[in-house]
From TrEMBL:
Family annotation (SUPFAM superfamilies): S-adenosyl-L-methionine-dependent methyltransferases (SSF53335)
Swiss-Prot/TrEMBL GO biological process terms: methylation
Presence of keyword Methyltransferase: yes
Pfam family, one: Methyltransf_11
Record carries keyword Methyltransferase: yes
Sorted UniProt keywords: Methyltransferase, Transferase
Name of the protein in question: Putative methyltransferase
Molecular function per GO: S-adenosylmethionine-dependent methyltransferase activity
Length: 206
């Protein structure tokens, strides 16, 4: 899936909504230290930018060079390309070494990952026992009773995984609780982000 969004990386940057600032404050409150965070599948850096408000340094990695070329610059963020043929040892060294990361974040991207490989990397780089892995996604677009059924039908018929939420929820049920202690961030399901009409029309940016 490395090149899936390469051709429309600029549209992806414009079309993706940001996440609420309160969400990142909740995540930061989960880790006792705020030295280093790793944003995996960072894309254009939309999550990394907000994580950087709470952590001294953020490493944003992605398999897409095109996405990284459009990543939002920030003095506390270092973006790095991680091609599919990169070894685990190279990734660990790139991120900062074993037991070095306070927070690992994945924003609406975990459904693309080789999960066993990813879990192994996370278990090695997270600080023990206080390191945190945070994975989240969108739960849907709500506009109006007229628009919403049309959007739901479009997502179901045309997206590779249908709507993204069931895919990620299924991943969590099948895998997360076997490898990591799972905690729900308080009120996470009630967290909302707002899209402009222009963003909602850029569906090819997702």
């Amino acid at each position: 899936m490395a090149g899936l969004f390469d051709k429309q990386a600029d549209v992806y940057l414009e079309g993706r909504p940001t996440y609420p600032k309160e969400w990142y404050s909740k995540l930061a409150a989960l880790t006792p230290h705020h030295t280093l965070a790793w944003d995996v599948g960072t894309g254009n850096g939309q999550a990394a930018i907000s994580v950087a408000e709470h952590y001294e340094q953020v490493i944003g990695t992605d398999v897409s060079e095109s996405q990284l070329q459009h990543a939002i610059p920030h003095p506390q963020i270092r973006y790095a390309h991680t091609p599919l043929n990169i070894t685990d040892e190279e990734v660990i060294a790139l991120v900062g070494g074993e037991d070095s990361v306070d927070l690992v974040t994945v924003a609406a991207a975990v459904h693309w990952f080789d999960l066993p490989k990813f879990y192994n990397l996370v278990s090695r780089v997270l600080k023990k026992p206080e390191g945190v892995l945070a994975v989240w996604t969108y739960s849907g677009i709500e506009v109006s009773p007229t628009f919403d059924p049309v959007m739901k039908r479009f997502l179901t018929q045309h997206f590779l995984f249908g709507t993204i939420e069931p895919s990620v929820r299924g991943v969590a049920i099948r895998h997360f609780h076997f490898l990591f202690k799972v905690s729900r961030v308080s009120d996470a399901r009630g967290t909302r982000c707002h899209w402009t009409f222009r963003q909602s029309c850029h569906l090819k940016g997702f």
